[in-house]
Amino acid sequence: MCSIIAYASCNCNDVSSILLDSLSLLEYRGYDSVGIAVLNGSSISVRKGVGNVKDVNRKHRLEELVGSIGIGHTRWATHGSISDLNAHPHTSCDGRIAIVHNGIIDNYLELREGILKDHSFKSETDSEVIAHMLEHLLSRHKDIKDVMVALLRLLHGSYAFVALLNDGTLVGSRHNEPLIVGVVPSANSILYHYANRKKYNDVFCSSCFISSDVLAFIKYTDKAIFLSNDEFFILRPIKHGYRLSIYDAEGNKIGKQITQIAWELSSYVIDKGKYAHYTLKEIHEQEYTIARALCSKINHEFITRLIDARRVIVTGSGSSYNASLYAKHLLARVGVNIDACIASEVRYSSISIDSNDVLLAISQSGETADLLDAVRYAKSKGCKILSIVNVNTSSLVRESDYFTSINAGPEIGVAATKSFTAQLAVIYKVASLIAHENNSNYDYSIYYYDSLSSAISKGVRDIIAREHLLSSIADTIKDVNDIYVIGKGVNHIIALEGALKLKELAYIHAEAINAGELKHGPLALIDNSRSSVVIALNVKDNTYKDVINNVKEVKARGGYVIGISDCYEYKECYDVMLDLPSIYDTNERDCGFVNAISYESLAYPVYQCIPLQLLAYNIAVKKNYNPDYPRNIAKSVTVT
Ligand code: AGP
Predict the structure, then answer these.
(1) Is residue 252 located within the same domain as residue 279?
(2) Which domain does 108 fall in, by range?
(3) Is 341 a catalytic residue?
(4) Residue 637 beta carbon below 6 angstroms from any ligand 1 atom
(5) What is the pLDDT of residues 90-135, one digit of tens each?
(6) Is residue 632 included in any domain, yes or no?
(7) What's the structural domain count of the chain?
(8) pTM
(9) Ligand 1 atom index nearest CA of 637
(10) Which residues of the chain have pLDDT under 50?
(11) Triad 493, 497, 585: Cα angle to 5°
(12) CA torsion sign, 393 to 395 to 396 to 400?
């Protein structure tokens, strides 16, 4: 999962700074290496290296490249080590073609050892074959359109790529990886027509972006064209601008609609502001994002489809899978026949799927390849697709029958934080709406959600105000080898999420253990060596007493226990207690509404999750790790 960007402009000769600016916004997709290629006259210059955008630019002075058309890339290594040679862009033997690629070319070895055996390759990557294939085909076909048709027939795998040719043409295509065109209209061309949603065979523009994510160009234009699978584009320079043409895989020109990107996204300021890291900013934003998610519009059909389904299979990856477990927990309570399945397991699971079922897909990015694969598999079985997603311009939204947005705004930090709690809030609302639909005695009133969201926002503010406590706890435990997060019922799901944050941010082996299971084996891991720590999620719900007994079992073996709780009854059982705001403080909460799903079912998971996010963040900072861009992973995993 890399990021690609291309930019062409007839009004600017300094495209490298625009490319670098966009790449820094896309860095969450991969940050092993960075590179750009810029055309000046008829020669293409490439500068690239290992590291993030800032470091590589400082070392290789990418911004010094002059020209009005260029391509760029940030890499998340899949094929070939992290090295300067394997960094993109890659070029053809004659240097007249440069390419950037996201995805995996499955048959690259075959092409290298077959058609391209006389070509000299500089890298170990699969991607480089695209440059050489274009060179090979251009020597056989005059028209670049025919070259692209032939190329798409020969490339197998998942890909989004853009190629820069030294005659100033940009070409590219996608197959199961996102590729979006951002058009900046030339003065007299588009605005008029655009209004009537007309489909365009050719788009004339003064400048044009092509990228993996609208984030890369949203501050320059909110007019986007989403390429569908196996479509390709050709951007040709013309007098005073560019002509963009889009074709299907057979080379037939097709009309494409221009989509107006939601103003919310275009007005969202993508910077850290006063915060040291995006992750900390996004943790603090939960004071508002949970409330916003609770006010998300949920289409009535979305609810009735869940109610009428023979069975619902809820799925996701990573944090979104943990949110899927929460969905299973809540929707089962309001009578939905529901199973949860990890996205990468859906096609292998014993759960048989057919047209009577609904797949509920949960994702922040909407681009996770494992999830899109599960969606396409379920679709092939006639299943309806419902999705809960954060990025409304994503492939998942376009492949869903119905979707609900969590409205958390762009999440740049690789670790899911605000998106996870916003997913919980939307799931809570969906369950409440289902209960109301099934039994009108259960209230459904926007006033309820308003009071709920202000109660939760207050609680989140109180927890964030306790960050100094978490910072000192982080000091105490930052060098342990193992952390076991225990909890029961829905709290075990939050234990899973907490353990994931500690792994991906603090690089500590962390495991969620169902508290009741401790005595059936994991207790053997506990001793008084202080090389491990137990974090007990122990709120005052029906699991409180049981978990206190489990805490005592750990203490009896000399274990070190941190309690996260809103109850002081057995405070002395923990070595340290992080006290949570009582959910009963907020008396305006119920306002006399009868809701099938108790307020605690959302408040407790949220209140326990945020301290775990802050703990993982603080440990990462104390260990000088970059919390925004943890090693070896990236924000949206677009390879299976
Ligand atoms: C969570 O912090 C990670 N970033 C990762 O596990 C993530 O949740 C997973 O890759 C799914 O991403 P998605 O929600 O964008 O589909």
Answers:
(1) no
(2) 3-268
(3) no
(4) yes
(5) 999 999 999 999 999 999 999 999 999 999 999 999 999 999 999 9
(6) no
(7) 3
(8) 0.88
(9) 10
(10) 190-197, 586-591
(11) 70
(12) positive
